[in-house]
Amino acid sequence: MRPDLNITLLDSLNKRINFLNEASSALALNVKTVHARAEDGAKMPELREKFDFVLSRAVAEIPVLSEWTLPFAKVGGFSVMYKGPGAGAELETAGNALRILKGKAKLIPRKTGWGERVLVVIEKTDKTPAKYPRKAGTAEKNPL
User: Fold this and answer.
1) What is the pTM for the complete model shown?
2) Residue 100 three-state SS
3) In the 8-state DSSP scheme, what is residue 71?
4) Residues of the chain with CATH 3.40.50.150
5) Residue 92 and residue 76: Cα distance in Å, rounded?
6) Among the CATH numbers 3.90.550.10, 3.60.130.10, 3.40.50.150, 3.30.930.10, which is that of 51-141?
7) Contact, 67 vs 102, CB < 8 A?
8) What's the rounded Cα separation, in Å, for the pair 110 and 121?
9) Start-to-end C-alpha separation, the chain
10) What is the C-alpha separation between 116 and 141, in angstroms, rounded?
């Protein structure tokens, strides 16, 4: 429907990347896939600070997910996280991470057939310091 969009999908599991390649080919989608952890992909010059929007599902708490996603967004771009009803409380714990990673957040609540969902929209206000994201496993063990 939108051949003008360039979409990049990143996943750490090659099995999912293979599925995404097959599905996008069958649907004739303009999609590029990258097999990498977010912590590694965000260090790649061709991916770092290159995207208008970085979309993610609720795979981690907001401080951790911010560290994984904001390095991919351009300054002025957005990290959009699909979260459940606890997103407001999570966001309260994310202030330090957002300050360090250069993001400003707002919540957009939505009612769905599956209950309340929230989009956490983080605007990237400046370049993310080069040391982020930290090596794999660090953000989860020691959130910002």
Assistant:
1) 0.92
2) helix
3) G
4) 51-141
5) 22
6) 3.40.50.150
7) no
8) 13
9) 39
10) 28
